[in-house]
Each structure stands twice: as C-alpha cells, then as structure tokens.
Specification:
The chain is an alpha+beta fold and 87 residues long. It contains 2 helices and 3 strands, in the order E-E-E-H-H. It has a domain of 56 residues.
Length: 87
C-alpha cells in the first residue's frame, strides 16, 4: 500500500514499510528503522519518513551518509552479503 510520507532513498518505493523499534547502541541514537518492502533496505525512520520537514533530496543525502557510516565500521546494522536482511 503506498504511503504519503515514506519514500525509500534506496529505490524510491512509496509502499508502506515494516517498522522495527530497536535499542540504540551508543553512540548511535537511532531507535526506529523502516524496512522497504521492495528492496529490503533498513532505513532510519527519520530519513525514511523525512521528519522535521526534511525534503526528498536532503533525505537522499542523509541516506548516503548513513550508508557510508555503517559500511565504515559502525556497529549499527552491519550486514554481510548473502544474509536474508532480517533484523
């Protein structure tokens, strides 16, 4: 079902994501993740739903920064290739 607020920054899907509440791992403060139903990306909710009036372009930039951070050694949701992507 399409969402008015959600836009996946990875694939531009507007289909309603699954939401997961997580305990933050210091120094990370992310407490909600949206999982895109089309591409399976795990996106911090503040990016996925563009909180505080964030535009789509800014959300895309934030997503790229988040991706670089998680790939460079941050413990938050690092995934290994070949996994099913579940939380």
């Amino acid at each position: 079902m399409p969402s008015d607020k959600f836009i996946c920054p990875a694939c531009n899907s507007r289909n309603e994501p699954a939401i997961a509440l997580i305990s933050p791992i210091p120094p990370n403060v992310i407490t909600e993740l949206a999982t895109c139903p089309d591409c399976g990306a795990h996106i911090p909710a503040h990016i996925a739903f563009r909180w505080k009036g964030m535009g789509a372009k800014k959300a895309s930039e934030e997503w790229l920064r988040y991706q670089r951070k998680t790939k460079s050694g941050s413990p938050l949701l690092e995934t290994k290739e070949g996994t099913d992507g579940s939380l």
